[in-house]
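User: quick one, sequence for these tokens?
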């Protein structure tokens, strides 16, 4: 647990948290959508453009070498952060969505193959698979969930077979915060020779990650949900698998030799990095990782667990509230979604907004999950390292106010 002083010190590094909205202090609890950025990260962006800016890898001049060195340094930093075997297994993408699209379009999928996802998935881990299934005449299978939203693993064991080409599952649900038993799913899938992709958008900085221990084939995540910039993310892939799948996009950087007769591709990771990457994003992300490592992922995880526990306790006392995802905070990350009586989530969200509270409302990029719960949408609260117990109290009181106004 962090002391009051530690939290204040962390908060003081986030300039936006000092802002007021509609004359109320900002309570930012929409962190599952994107986190705020600490001052070091903000400054790192300026510093990149004023001291480094150049294109990478092919330049022999000083700045190009400096930019290349910094980019490759961040690649190694990410390798260490997720405990990958080699930095060539770290491919820079636009983010989780692009990473999933990369895998969906690059692995070989044939007519009659099966792809398994779950009811819990974010649209970005549903739609790419639907498209590929349509194109290749493959079949999409869905792991069902129980009433609290937990995956029905016995049903998964029923779905998986030698026909399964890939299993693609989120590590932490962006709606319910449920931490899925991915290690079990991975080892079961491997028994049948299926590949596994984990959508880890909600994971880095919230759970310690060891891709080798998980034995996962592909792992996707974004910088902006871990205090870094938007428009940059990673696909981790096992080297021997990446070497044997098709490139995703083509152009400069991903080639070794080009002639009109035959083009050969670069080695990993460049084979999958066509064109000029988001150089600034990569370098600034490095600063965000330093920020996270200084506090420690385990510490962030424990603190968020305490926040979630307290929020579940407080919010469940509100008459007419429906909390989704069960009450066991130890099986969840700091996300809590709910509906209040018969009120529409947009109405609840709008009044909270007027009181300075930033929450997410609507289908939360998971319409199948909304259908499962027979709702159009939910209100989602998601915590970060800078949130406080006092903010949860303020949310609690504000929800009582919402009820008073609307009911
Ligand atoms: C945010 C999120 C995504 C999409 O991430 P982008 O950064 O928008 O590409 C995918 N899956 C989950 C679980 C998410 O939370």
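Assistant:
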């Amino acid at each position: 647990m962090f002391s009051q002083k530690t939290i204040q010190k962390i908060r003081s590094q986030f300039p936006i948290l000092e802002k007021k909205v509609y004359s109320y202090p900002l309570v930012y609890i929409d962190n599952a959508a994107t986190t705020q950025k600490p001052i070091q990260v903000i400054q790192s962006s300026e510093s990149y453009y004023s001291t480094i800016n150049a294109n990478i890898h092919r330049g022999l001049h000083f700045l190009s070498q400096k930019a290349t060195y910094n980019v490759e340094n961040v690649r190694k930093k990410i390798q260490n952060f997720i405990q990958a075997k080699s930095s060539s297994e770290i491919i820079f993408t636009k983010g989780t969505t692009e990473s999933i699209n990369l895998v969906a379009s690059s692995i070989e999928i044939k007519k009659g193959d099966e792809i398994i996802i779950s009811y819990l998935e974010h649209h970005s881990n549903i739609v790419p698979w639907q498209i590929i299934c349509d194109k290749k005449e493959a079949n999409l299978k869905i792991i069902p969930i129980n009433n609290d939203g937990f995956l029905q693993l016995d049903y998964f064991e029923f779905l998986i077979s030698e026909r399964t080409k890939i299993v693609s599952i989120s590590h932490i649900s962006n709606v319910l915060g449920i931490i899925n038993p991915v290690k079990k799913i991975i080892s079961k899938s491997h028994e049948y020779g299926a590949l596994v992709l984990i959508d880890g958008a909600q994971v880095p900085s919230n759970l310690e990650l060891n891709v080798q221990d998980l034995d996962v084939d592909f792992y996707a995540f974004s910088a902006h949900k871990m205090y870094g910039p938007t428009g940059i993310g990673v696909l981790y892939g096992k080297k021997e698998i990446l070497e044997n799948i098709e490139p995703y996009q083509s152009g400069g950087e991903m080639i070794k030799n080009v002639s009109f007769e035959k083009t050969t591709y670069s080695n990993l990771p460049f084979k999958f990095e066509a064109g000029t990457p988001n150089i600034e994003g990569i370098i600034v992300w490095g600063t965000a990782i330093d920020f996270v490592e200084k506090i420690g992922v385990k510490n962030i995880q424990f603190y968020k667990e305490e926040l979630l526990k307290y929020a579940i306790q407080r919010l469940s006392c509100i008459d007419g509230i429906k909390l989704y995802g069960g009450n066991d905070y130890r099986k969840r990350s700091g996300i809590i979604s709910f509906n209040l009586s018969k009120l529409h989530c947009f109405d609840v969200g709008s009044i909270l907004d007027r009181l300075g509270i930033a929450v997410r409302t609507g289908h939360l990029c998971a319409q199948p999950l909304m259908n499962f719960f027979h709702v159009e949408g939910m209100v989602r609260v998601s915590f970060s390292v800078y949130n406080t117990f006092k903010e949860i109290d303020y949310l609690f009181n504000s929800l009582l106010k919402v009820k008073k106004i609307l009911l």
